[in-house]
Each structure stands twice: as C-alpha cells, then as structure tokens.
Amino acid sequence: MDDSRETFGQNAFVTGFPVKHSRSPLIHGHWLRSLGLAGSYRAHEVAPEQFGAFIAGIKDGSSGFIGGNVTIPHKELAFQLADRPDALSEELGASNTLWMEEGKLHASNTDGRGFTANLDERHPGWDQTDTAVIFGAGGASRAVIQAIRDRGLKNIHVVNRTISRAQELADRFGPAIHAHPTDALGEVMKGAGLFINTTSLGMDGEAAPQMDFSPLASGAVVTDIVYVPLLTPMLIQAEEQGFATVDGLGMLLHQAVPGFAKWFGKTPVVDEALRALIIADMEKH
Ligand code: ATR
Fold it and tell me: Is residue 75 among the annotated active site residues?
C-alpha cells in the first residue's frame, strides 16, 4: 500500500491475537485495488490486555482507524465495548465488524451473512428445506444457527460430542433448535435437506470420521465451514455418496463484504478472481 493511499483514504484493520494468519488483508487489498479506492486495510495484532485501549483509540480518533474486523480472541470484548452493537451481535454476544458512524462505534457480526451468501451463490435454492443438521456446537456454529433460523428453517438439529454445549445453543436460539448427542446423527439426518459441519474434524488434513450421509433427503446439500483444505474429508465423502457440496471459502469472502462497504463506501463483489487469489495463497502455505 503506498503512502498517498494511507494519507488520503480510510484506514481499516483486522485485529486478533495472533493475527498474522488472517487472509482478510488479501481480500480487502484486492477490493481496494480493483475498485481503485484510496485506503488501507492491514493486520494489527493486539494482545488481550491492550484491547480496551485499542478500542478507545478508535473511538477518540487517535488510532486513525475508521473501523475493522475482529477475530479470536477479541470478538466478545469488541461487542461489549461497542457503543452501538446491532441485534445480530446482541444475540450472539460477539462482533466481528466495527465501524465509526456519527461519532459512535457500531458493531455487527457478519459471519452468518457470509454463510448464507455463500450458499446462495453456490447452491441457490438450498433454503427450500425445513430441516438442517449442524454438526458441532462451538463458537463458529452460533452465527450459522442464527442465520439459518432467520432464513426461516423450522427444524435445526445441533449434534455435538458434548451435549451440554448443544443444549446451550438450543436454549439461546429458540424453539426451532434441538440438541442431540453424536449417536443421534443418523436419526436426525433423516429427510434433512442441509448438513453443515462446524466441527474442527478434518481441518488441516486431520482425520475425519466415516460419515454416512444416506439418510439425508435426496438433493440435500452438504457444506463445511472449514476451508483448509478446500475439499474437506466430509465434503469428499458427501460427493462420493452423491450429494451436492459447497466448500467454506465463500463464507470467509462474503463475511467481508459489509465491513468493506461501511469503511470504504462501495459494496465489493465476491468473484472468481478473489477466490483464485485466496486459493493461490492457501497453496503457498
Ligand atoms: P470453533 O469456535 O471453531 O467452533 P470450538 O469452540 O473449539 O471451535 O468448537 C469446536 C467444535 O468441534 C465443537 O463442537 C467440538 O465438540 P465439543 O463441544 O464436544 O468439544 C468439535 N470437536 C472438536 N474435536 C472433536 C472430536 N474429536 N470429535 C467430535 N467433535 C469434536
């Protein structure tokens, strides 16, 4: 990024601890360049004990940042410290996108929107089912549950090794959500039109369990929010068993759209060039 852009454009960040693995600078850098906008977006590592001061510097203008993205472990504190968290953040208790507007720090959580936008792009019609199975009840499954509930799915079965975590989510997200232990997986899959892996099983080349997707409805779609590797063991098995699949990379790309629009004033497009850029980077590391 050259100096003139830093001086005349808006400056945005991604912060986490650590943050160097983040691919967000690549995504936003691509959009800034392709839209010809002045501005910068860079990784800015902040330790947990410094996070309050970092947010204060955004609010009083001394940091020079208009806003940015927040990742692990700061999403909960970002929500708590924002002046104007939106309803999505309120329910999740966590925010991943911050921006200054009329002197106030606003916060949203765009992960769920990223999830549904990815399915809308790669498998339109995915929401024509009433029933979904979500495998996993960790941090990442929350925004997914919220998003598909808000899309109108009526039966959302959350299956998790630790049933108490699934039950917490059922209690939090309302009557459409049902908690189950792992051994109920085959039963709750019966007739479901959507299967979502949110567990870390199969991530980074680690082994994944043998999955039998045959109880799913014919025409069901299987997706994984893990995108390293792009074709996870679960997606490979689902394809082999004749189901449509959607990989998780698009969730990362689409969750970035609303923040960019807030900071830089233009709504960017998730296109094949962006996807190819991130895939090339994944192949390097
Ligand atoms: P994230 O924020 O990425 O969702 P997390 O909160 O650590 O990460 O959640 C990881 C998910 O993967 C959880 O649903 C976890 O199950 P538990 O709640 O029982 O821990 C699931 N998971 C991880 N390793 C697993 C394994 N070996 N078998 C089954 N589930 C596993």
Answer: yes
